[in-house]
Amino acid sequence: MALDENIIARWRQSELLVLGGSAGAFKHIYNAVRVFPAELDKAVLIVLHRKKNFFSEIENLFAQNSRMSLREVSDKDAIKKNTLYIAPANYHTLIESKHSFGLDVSEAVWYSKPSIDVSFECAAEVFKKKCTAVLFSGANQDGAKGLLSLRNNGGLTIVQDPDEAEMPEMPQAAIRVNAAEYILRTEDILDLFKT
Questions:
Q1: Which of 123, 120, 49 has the alpha carbon at shortest distance from 86?
Q2: Can you give the pTM of this predicted structure?
Q3: Is 14 marked active-site?
Q4: Is there a cis peptide before residue 114, judged by omega within 30 degrees of 0?
Q5: Domain 5-194 carries which CATH code?
Q6: How many C-beta atoms lie closer than 10 Å to residue 184's C-beta?
Q7: Out of 22, 66, 112, 137, which one is annotated catalytic?
Q8: Is the Cα dihedral 92, 155, 72, 30 positive or negative?
Q9: Active site includes 22?
Q10: How many CB atoms lie within 10 A of CB 150?
Q11: Options 14, 49, 66, 161, the catalytic residue
């Protein structure tokens, strides 16, 4: 499915973009970080399944290749446009009603902290139709339930085409529960981010 006027219009009205993924997603999210303009006019939250000591590597690689300001989420951070946030390991990243982040230490979801579902569900409650979420490659079902919450609340929901995902289970799980409004190849997702 190619880009159409509806997806472009809804993307432009978004105030928050949440990117979720696990195994096989890093290179696609890295490529997204490279194409974001400095004045994206949105906040971007990246929720990746990863090990605790992986942040410095991600931070350095993303910072060297992003035109946006980048930071790891801290508890009570205000969500600011034109800023790229990375969800920290060993916490769930919450989005709170006053457009700030919260960090939660409750149990792992789908064996993961941060959980993509948790962040997507919070974004659905707070940002509703002003949110775009993209779910990339991964080896479990984390993200599907949260993406459905976003779609039900008017958010723009996109999954990477499972045919090009290194680990297709994550996007396939979202498609099975009808959470994906658009199924796009990575090239089309990156083109959307440039519009």
A1: 49
A2: 0.95
A3: no
A4: yes
A5: 3.40.50.180
A6: 21
A7: 22
A8: positive
A9: yes
A10: 28
A11: 49
Q: pLDDT 10s digit of each residue in the chain, 195 long?
A: 678 999 999 999 999 999 999 999 999 999 999 999 999 999 999 999 876 555 567 778 888 889 999 999 999 999 999 999 999 989 999 999 999 999 999 998 988 999 999 999 999 999 999 999 999 999 999 999 999 999 999 999 999 999 999 999 999 999 999 999 999 999 999 999 999
Percent composition of the chain: helix, strand, coil (DSSP 3-state, to 5):
40, 25, 35
- Give domain limits for the chain: 5-194
| Cα 186 from Cα 178, distance rounded (Å) | 20
- How far apart are alpha carbons 24 and 168 in whole angstroms? 9
142 tagged catalytic: yes
Contact residues for 166 (Cβ-Cβ < 8 A; gap 6+): 23, 24, 25, 137
> What per-residue confidence (pLDDT) applies to 1?
60
Q: Which of 92, 112, 117, 142 is catalytic?
A: 142
Q: What is the pLDDT of residue 53?
A: 56
DSSP-derived secondary structure for 127-163: TGGGEEEEE---SS-TTHHHHHHHHHTT-EEEEE-GG
Gap between the Cα atoms of 33 and 62, Å rounded: 7
Q: Name the residue among 59, 81, 84, 58 with its Cα closest to residue 69.
A: 84
Kindly state the helix (H) or strand (E) to which residue 43 belongs, with its residue range: strand 43-48
Per-residue tokens: 152 = 């039900």
